[in-house]
Amino acid sequence: MTTPIEHLHVEANGLRFHVAAAGDAGAPSILFLHGFPEGWISWQTVMETLPGYRLYAPDLRGYPATERAKDGYDVLTLTDDIKALIDALELDQPILVSHDWGGALGWIFAHRYSNMIRTLIVLNCTHPKTLVRAVLEVQHLQTFRFPYVVFFLIPWLPEHLLTTALGKKLMSLSCKLLEGRPGAINPAMLSDMLSRFQSAQDIKGPIDYYRQLVLTQIIPSRRRRLNAVYNVPITVPVTLVWGDKDKILIEAVGRESYKDAGCPVDFRPVRGAGHFLQLEVPERVVNEILHALAAS
């Protein structure tokens, strides 16, 4: 049997967030954070099949079902959103499960607010400080793995292009190229994910995540503030689950994440899987979540 999904709207950090929810309201809670260009729907299959927990998956700031925000796409505001969502949903030390951009926010949130969560589980996202260092030092050719980031820094053009018919086809193709094996991602789910971007404003916020991250590295005061966050070690158990066929984030770099987390990281490779683990092998993701929780 699959667990039905319900849809909530929650006020948090000055915005009205859409949050998908499932499972027994009295059970321990798990909060899922999605990446780009996914939205909550990337966790749907996991949520429908993960037993014994109360599950929440918000559409993060800037994604279509959540109230549109003009600003606040820097990582500190985005992690404040997560804190506010935990408070608004009245969650008592939830498990934080995160992927891609959500993974980056999960790492940073755990540095800032370890006391608010029970454990951190990250799917295919290197610790942000580890990743930035790898890019700057050209480790394992990581610098050249995501040229789209440079394109995203151009004002106006990316959001207008990606919401055309051609742009949506390019996004779909890009996601399929990141599969560990051809056809691993359900095409109907991929179509549903991308169909939500109807106008340039629908995708401007998600693209602004990249713009603001680069600005944080360029502006000294913002960089110092983020580095101060990294200086506080994560104090909860951390598991990093990794599809080893990821073409944009390199496993060798991901394995170095513990050096910047300030704590041990249980690295769990998933052989034959690509970047979008929860879309490609949701049953394996469920098993890895249960394994991490049993170990912690």
Verbal overview:
This protein has an eight-stranded mixed β-sheet with strand order 1-2-4-3-5-6-7-8, sandwiched between helices. The radius of gyration is 18 Å and the shape is globular. The chain has 14 helices and eight strands. By secondary structure, the protein is of the alpha/beta class. Strand 3, helix 1 and strand 4 form a beta-alpha-beta unit. Helix content is 44%, strand content 16%.
Summarize the structure.
The protein is an alpha/beta fold.
Q: Report the span from N to C terminus.
A: 27 Å
Estimate what percentage of residues fall within beta strands.
Answer: 15-25%
CATH classification, class level: Alpha Beta
Q: What overall geometry do the principal axes of the alpha carbons give?
A: globular
Our count of helices gives 14
Helix content: 40-55%
- Average pLDDT, rounded to a whole number, is 97
Which sequence of SSEs, written as H and E, runs from N to C?
EEEHEHEHEHHHHHHHEHHEHH
The overall number of domains is 1
